[in-house]
Amino acid sequence: MATQTPNYELLKPAENENYDIFVHNANMDKIDAQMKTNADAAAGAIPKSLATEASQFLFSSGVGAWVVKTVAEIKTALGLKSAAYTESTAYAAAAHKVNHATGGADALTPSDIGAAKRFSKTATLATANWAGAAAPYTYELTDADILAADTPHVDRVTGTDAAAAALINTAWGLIAGYAVKPQTSAGKITFYASAKPAVALPIMYEVVR
Q: Which domain holds residue 29?
């Protein structure tokens, strides 16, 4: 005896029944009709344009209740000001500040994602600019990017000339070995030395915030 499928009531002939093309075709017609109904429902679920400000949509509040929001309210929540709210606008809002791969104006910045900000620079401490008549001798390096709260990592820079590198290392030892390490204030790094270096001292400094 033939039976039916539970969802769409497709006819399933019993094993002892002969094949009937009409049963097969009737099943195909039911499947085709249901697939078309499903496709139409899916196409109408999300409108391709939300240009009407008064259009309303139902949202779950997440606590078992439902709330109605208009397009105008959704735009306000997203910070959108343009009159037309289209599918492309919606995607642009959702992707705000995530187009860093293309270097767009809304590219992610370290502050957006809580990442550390890092920069490094080089400078030369000239022999004539050391101040003081006795230790500690001081040198003020001006840099507008330096903050009082910064703790820069500082080191000397030596080249490939061994003799020049030896003089730089000696000069650096007067700073690195001194009890007071380089100090920062707004726009400035102050270096301290036990004696005035005899050569210009190339340095690099790195700040991580």
A: 3-45
